[in-house]
Design brief:
It is built from 15 helices and one strand. It is mostly helical. It has one domain. The radius of gyration is 18 Å and the shape is globular. InterPro entries: Diverse_Substrate_Transporter, EamA_dom, EmrE-like. This is Permease. It holds the Pfam family EamA.
Length: 309
Amino acid sequence: MGPILCLLSAASFGALAIFGKLAYDAGVSTGALLLIRFGLAAALLATIVLGRPELRRAVTRAAPRVLVVALLLGAAGFTVQAGLYFSALRLIDASLLSLILYTYPVLVTLGAVLLGRDRLTGKRVVALLAACTGILLVLLGSGTVSFRPLGALLAFGSAVTYTIYILVADTVVHRLPPVVLSMLVMLGATTALGARALVTGGVDRGFPAIGWFWLACIAVVSTVLPILTFFAGMRRTGPSTAAILSTFEPVVTAALAALILGEALTSVQLAGGVLVLASAVVLQLRTRDSTVPQRGAMRYVSRRGGAHD
């Protein structure tokens, strides 16, 4: 069941961009999408936390600094990442966005090396070079696929922001149960977005019922469900295997984008995507002197993503 749960998590995260495109088609604004997504996810996760005594105790016993950092991760980190992600989604195809976002494992590894948290081994040098080559192929191989430089820049900005978010979250991820940390991140994001909505006059909620349906799918299917299934799968497989299985995510995005949205990647971009995903797998493989692979799966504390996100 462990691998199945991890793959289900990856598939659910992979559908995020598709649901986002469908929500945009229904007239949902980016501001409404973000606020409602995080608000619904925070409410669902809070219900789970309140329903389990051991999780409630974890909140009350946590150090105030840890709680503040968790809330700020959502308010100052995840909101920016998700905003860039969904802004890019308005400009470029979902499949291309997913591949550009998936450069974050490379960026996390580089960041961990620069911060002294990890060592740059020969295997990782090869993986990083392969990833850089893949990124260039993805960006330069545009043909029939929709490509706008600003959209690609926003997508890469989302990956960079997510990298910073992960490296900061790594300082508190072991001090709270994953579901509790997820709830606090979602609550922080909801609070920040709600405050912004009050200052700017609110968000447009005049879209049709189908828009609410896609928002519910984003919050439940592509936020809460993948978080819970990933943690359940990781307990059975271990973090390294779970992180490697997560590379199924952009594959799902590309497949759904082709089936539902009619998107298509060029052969050059597909080759670049394979290099990016292969480098992500290599970077997650466990080695004796590595610390990041054991922690690589922690991005799912809040994705998507997340953003996924």
